[in-house]
């Protein structure tokens, strides 16, 4: 299958040797999205606002690819502190219908730029 690179200015650019997303067949795989405001380059610190920004970045990439949050089938959420789990879930739930995608949530020692959350998804077209 042919691989296509997805890129949009409505989400932060890659901060390393990777793409914002890759399309293979009818699936879109996003890279982990940090809570960076693409207009200002500012890293969002408040965990609820950070979660929303990371998901807005995912949403922008999916829209560029021709799909939507409704087509997300799997998410992976990396968190700096699992004590933020409830706050993250509160925001996360607003981005998906009741047909929630499968999800993993993992506490990690450190994220790029010392972010509090990073989110990646797999979505269908």
Give a short overview.
This is 2-iminobutanoate/2-iminopropanoate deaminase. Belongs to the RutC family. The chain has 125 residues and is α+β, with helices and mostly antiparallel strands.
Please give the CATH architecture.
2-Layer Sandwich
How many strands appear in the DSSP assignment? 6
Q: How many structurally independent domains?
A: 1
Principal-axis shape equals globular
Q: What gap, in angstroms, lies between the N and C termini?
A: 15 Å
Strand content: 25-35%
Which runs of at least 5 residues are low in confidence (pLDDT < 50)?
A: none
> Structural class, please?
alpha+beta
Contiguous helical run count = 2
CATH superfamily: RutC-like
Query: How is the largest sheet built, in terms of strand order?
Result: 1-2-3-6-4-5
| Radius of gyration, whole Å | 14 Å
SSE series:
EEEHEHEE
Family: Belongs to the RutC family.
GO molecular function: deaminase activity
Protein name: 2-iminobutanoate/2-iminopropanoate deaminase
Organism: Maledivibacter halophilus
